[in-house]
Amino acid sequence: MTSASYPDPSRRLLITGATIIAVLMVTLDGTIAVIALPHMQSTLGASQDQIAWVLTSYLLAGAIATPLAGWMADRFGRVRVMALSVVGFTLSSIACGLAPTLEFLVFARLVQGLSGASLVPLSQVLLLDINPPEKQGPAIAAFGMGTLLGPMMGPILGGWLTEYVSWRAIFLINAPVGVMAFTGLMVFARDLHPGRASPFDARGFAFVSISIAAFQLMLDRGQMLDWFDSTEVCIEGTVAALFAYVAVVHMLTARNPFIKPAIFKDRNFLLGTMLSAVTGIFLTGVIPIMTSMMQQLLGYPVLLTGLISTPRAIGNIITIMLVGRLVSVMDARYLIFTGMALLVCSLALLSSMSLEVSQTRMGFVTFLQGCGSGLLFLPLTMIVFSTLPREHRNEGSTIFTLVRSLSGAAGISLIQAATIRDQAQVQSHLVERVRPDNPVIGWSMPDFDVMNVPGVQAMMGEIGRQAAMVAYVNSYRAILILAVIAAPLALFMRKANRTAEPLAAVHGE
Question: Which residues span the membrane (predicted)?
């Protein structure tokens, strides 16, 4: 493909801007509503279990619709699907902001999730497509900043709008953003080769969707319902496993399956997707428990917690900008491995912490996390799609995004559940040893009296803090082991083909 086949630089810039705005809008809405839930609950007169469906419906719809994005892009054209997705997301956002009842709000959030599911996976392939190989690094770096800044900005922007304007404003601000994204896509981008999709495999899509929906529900409601002590969670887990098995069998035996097995024959795609799943678990899962540890255990106020987390964003931005240039001259496998090594270092520091950890050390850990994830994102995306056949790019992008999203959700749920249960077990063991005949108690606290209620309460509080810290450290160590095992996967990938012809389905001409 010649350079003349690509859009001119100014048009590429405008297409990139519209794409990143759309991505930022969708990723922002994944986290912006979390902080406003209490205000929604009060306004709409909902219980805690009912208001949780505002988040669950969005995540559930997104998980179901993401696998469909690749087929729709092949059938109707990528830009057309993205533009319609922006329209649906914008209109449903306005509906969320004007929702008079909880039921209407949940329905609008469901439409939001369905509409926005295709934007992230199709956007990264669009940026690869409109840029020549030597310009793909900076384009994906810009895309990476959009996907990373959205979740980081969500709680901050949502908190400010909820406090000083209204919780409805967190949805209504999508209206002007959506208009800009839609205009940019429709005016500057073009579909050249729509209608290439294979016949739609309705059964395969149904099997995959039911399995994903049940799995997402199990993750989202498991902690609230005490996991497998709940009949609902057991049913959801069983349905997820059963339909996952049926979907795999169908994929391997059907003539034109919804997910084609041939896509997994590409070594880079297979290993890259596995690596993305693992990093999704410990990147997405570690950040919430670190925030919880700083606020609830170390006693940091919200503002200080935000300040200590800021180096993560700084590290992200620095490394993404740097790696956008390095990826064209260095082997992407070594950049990925370096990113994994930085994450392993951050986890090693976390797994050796105590209640006396300094704020400086916590800030350094978040900086390492930001640098590591920044080094991972762009090279991993580039190497996965550099060897993937042209006809599988749309489908590959949706699977890659879906796996990362589901693994992140699983990481949050599993790590939080393991930490809570571990804390209870450690606290039980420690309490058993606080008795008058224990020589350690007599030696370290000779004045301790079990009949002194304030003294016992102070002792129990300290035991709770120590047990919580042990639980956090145990979780960090488990994730550290997983990261060490996963890191060498990067070295088994094939070297990126920088001269490979990119996908030619969409251009801005």
Answer: 12-38, 50-69, 81-100, 140-161, 167-188, 200-219, 239-258, 270-291, 297-322, 334-355, 367-388, 475-493
